[in-house]
Amino acid sequence: MSSENIVLKNQESLSSFGDIAPCVSVGRQGLTLIETLMAIAIFAVGIEGFSLLFMHAWKNNSYTLEMGQSSMAVSQGVNTLVGYLRSARQSDNGSYPIISADDNNLIIYSDYDRDGITERLHIYKSNQNILMGVTNPTTTMPKTYPTADQEVKTIAVRIVNTNSEPIFYYYDKNYAGGTTQLPLETPAAIADIRLLKIHLKINIDPNRAPDNIEMQTYVELRNLNDYDRIH
To answer: What predicted TM-score, i.e. pTM, was given to this entire model?
Structure first.
């Protein structure tokens, strides 16, 4: 074969490759506008769902934390109140340590601030608060106590006891413990009281879970005994 024929055949081969090359498929690069918009929409829905889940979890945790803080504050207030009750004593004019004792209202004498003067303490429930009115005796003789509370202190807040759930229960000297023994009927005979129970229900929002936190404690009135009974 002549060199001229070889050159012609090579040219024909190159021409054939040139015809085939345009038919080769080139890989697609990037996304179309519609695909991009769909991806953005899916991402936005995912972010919104995550945000809602996060906010729900945050609210629940925040509420639980606030409930814990509230119950701790109530516990501290009740512990302080227990100290006042345990130290109940005769007034500075010789009156009996207990003035009156009802479901949600208790009046006693006690030196609550340890200044050597016996104050009258009026502990009561007002709406969702446990308050304590403090009254000092007169400085003149004979000692007397004004009828109205001179100062009111907050002992506990967010107390949700209903009208049928007293905050105070009273027991006499025969109380042997347990839940089977019934408390004294109210208003209780003050001479019979030797022990009282404080029962509180706490909830910052009764319409939301968790349920009420309940707290109760028993207080023995140390300065009362069978030798100073009122007849």
So the answer is: 0.69
